[in-house]
Amino acid sequence: MSRPLDPLGFEDEMCPVCKSRKYLNPDIVFVFNPECYHSMCLNCANRLFNDGPNQCPHAGCNKTLRRKGFRSAFFGDLAVEREVDIRRRVAAVFNQVEDDFETLQDYNNYLQMVEDLTFELVNGTDEKRRQAEAQLQAWEAEHKADIERNKKAGREADEMSRKRLAAERDAARQRRIEAMKEAEEEKRERVKNREMELDNLAKGITPATTEPSTKVQLKRRGGNRAGAATNEPLAQVSNLGADASEVERFRYRMHAGLSHPLMEKYRLDRQHVAGGYSFDDFAARALYEAFAGLGVFVEDEKEPGGGASVGGGGLSAGEVTTMAAGIAATGDVDKMDLD
Amino acid sequence: MASEDARYRETSQFEAWSFSPSQLAAMREKTNSLARQRITERILSSASNPLAPASNNTSHANTPDPSGNGTPNPNENGAPTLPDFLKPEEEALLISFYTSELLRAADHLGVPDEVRATATVFFRRFFLTNSIMTYPPQEMILVALFVGSKAEGRFPRVVEFQQRFNTKQDILAGEFLLAQGNRFNFEVRHPFRALMGAMMELRSYGDIDEQRIQAAEKRAHEILLSSPLMTDAYFHYTPSQIMFAALSLADRGLAERLIQETFHFVPPTTNSDSTPAATPLPGSDSLGTARKEGGGKGTMTNDERAAIIGTGIRDKVMGTIEACRNMLSSELPERKSHWTSESIFKSQIRPVRKKLLKCRDPDRWNLSELQRQRREQGLRREDSEERAAASNGNKDAAIFGGDLPAGAPEKKRRKVGGNGLEDPFGDPL
């Protein structure tokens, strides 16, 4: 199957019947008949074989072809196309699997036999090809029942895998839909909570705001997947944490209208605001520091009599001095890890 | 559940660094006497056996003392003359002087308020338990500034420091020493932010002239930047008390107003038996216990309220603030000129300094030399330990030189964790 060289690299096929080329007719479609694997353009095939079986127009080819047998090639090289066809046919007959053999040796011998036969069919001389063909048919006749059974088993396996794939695809789609629904619901709930918070703020109820937001947070973390039963204690835990970090205020109250000129400067500074800096936090800290320790009377509490009742916090002065002097005095490296 | 006071009681500033005046005086006395004793011992030992170094001053004999002039040279007869030691009052004077020097250095550097205050507090705390005769105050100033910057979250370069002060001093040599002298308590509570808080609160009353508030804040801030640092206020009072004292120095009316508004709670008369209980001893006892037992949140009994914001405690708070105010007023910012004036320096500081040069500790005076010695000693010890172990691991130690400092930290860690030696961190707080 030699072809004219194509110096430009274009696969410019030519119909051997009408000599038309792809270059001249871009819509040209080539077909061939598996009887002899000679290709021609679709127009020629239609024209020649419209009136029933006819001889192959290729010089020296005596095969009688029918219109029905023509098809377009899957592979560019018709030799490959032919080999694939043959292999398919052989595989349909020799469809035994490893389980059908007693030993691996047997199976390998079988595979070797099949491959040899296939090779004869594809590349052998006429003589060999005919022999192989005969062998194939003999085998087919001999093992008809086995072939049928294996075919059925293969079909069933195919069916199974197809079903499994379909089921998987279905489940994925279902999951996607559910996730979307959940996201939708979360969004709705957030909006609802937001409105509730705003309402509460308007009514002047502040402490109620913490709870809904934690719920949303839990949901986002997937905490709600386990169901409402586990959700409840989780919420409680997080509430406890919030309480512990909450500063108990006695001497002062956070209220609107706390301001300081230095703070005002930063309130307008875009660099500070962009980072989400909370001015209320600063105000709270400043106020805390202003009033923390006002009622701590060092003189009373640190004197040996008074100090004990405060929970034994401080070391006595003597202890500290002794220890420090000990450090200063000794030359031992054990006690001084200078580095 | 912790009131503001209870939370302050948990800070290291209260637990380890708050003292009554008598305690403070006793500590200074003790530091002074211990230093005398040690220095005497050391001078005697280095004089008696100059060729066979004792364990505590190993390389002193074969390295010429770099501090030079101050060391009393033992004469050949082996009878060194003991120097005249500083008295506690003289030490206190010098510490005040060097504190003012530290503040000047901070001004020179232009560091933020917190760094300035933290460095000063570090310096004063260090020389509370270490005598000024033992470690060099001039060098410790830079160390305190350096460590103070780091404690406040600024990380200057050592080289920059040296350049700014035009010195070649090894600042890092004293770093660990200072940290140890401070018992590794790096957080110092300052009154600066508290002042802002007080101003916010005052402003929110709405009936005070803005000009007045601003003037008071300016002045109070100025006072906070020097007076509490020059005095022992940080040892005796809480930051908020210091802040109120400074505010009261700036504008007494404003401070009193704020106190009045804060301690406004009058317990209802029906609960009459609780009121006298809180009033006579509002300080330590009833305060501490009442707060601890009152565990129920939200529902405070009138007793608890009275102990925290009641009118009964107000006078006590006022009294404390007044005492602090007196202390601060002894070192108003204007007194800076006192410490920098030439005449004062000549008449008061210089004689004491001369005395100090004569009586300082020969082994501890040079910080970098001290650090070098301690390193060497540590390595020697590890060396001998390794030899004693005689394990296979010694092979590469022999090849690469066993005393690589890279191996040292692990050994030290093991040592510290291992046996119950006297912990440099002190007893558990």
Automatic annotation (TrEMBL), chain A:
RING-type domain segment(s): 15-57
UniProt cross-references to InterPro entries, sorted A to Z: MAT1/Tfb3 (IPR004575), MAT1_centre (IPR015877), Znf_RING (IPR001841), Znf_RING/FYVE/PHD (IPR013083), Znf_RING_CS (IPR017907)
Subcellular location(s) of the protein: Nucleus
Main location per the UniProt record: nucleus
Gene3D superfamilies to which the protein is assigned, alphabetical: Zinc/RING finger domain, C3HC4 (zinc finger) (3.30.40.10)
Renumbered residue ranges of the record's region Disordered: 151-171
SUPFAM superfamilies recorded: RING/U-box
Transmembrane regions: none
Gene Ontology terms: cellular component: transcription factor TFIIH holo complex
Pfam families associated with the record: MAT1, zf-C3HC4_5
Protein name in UniProt: RNA polymerase II transcription factor B subunit 3
PANTHER family, sorted: CDK-ACTIVATING KINASE ASSEMBLY FACTOR MAT1
Keywords: Kinase, Metal-binding, Nucleus, Transferase, Zinc, Zinc-finger
Gene Ontology biological-process annotations: nucleotide-excision repair; regulation of transcription by RNA polymerase II
A Gene Ontology molecular function term of the record: cyclin-dependent protein serine/threonine kinase activator activity
Coiled coil segments of this chain: none
Automatic annotation (TrEMBL), chain B:
Keywords assigned by UniProt, alphabetized: Cyclin
Residue spans of biased composition, Basic and acidic residues class: 376-388
Region named Disordered: 40-84, 266-302, 376-429
Pfam families listed in its UniProt record: Cyclin_C_2
Biased composition (Low complexity): 44-57
GO biological process: regulation of transcription by RNA polymerase II
Domain Cyclin-like, first and last residues per copy: 100-180
SUPFAM superfamilies: Cyclin-like
Record's compositionally biased regions (Polar residues): 58-78, 268-277
InterPro entries: Cyclin-like_dom, Cyclin-like_sf, Cyclin/Ssn8, Cyclin_C_2
Recorded superkingdom: Eukaryota
GO MF annotations in UniProt: cyclin-dependent protein serine/threonine kinase regulator activity
Similarity comment: family membership: Belongs to the cyclin family. Cyclin C subfamily.
Protein name, UniProt field: Cyclin-like protein
Species, as recorded: Sordaria brevicollis
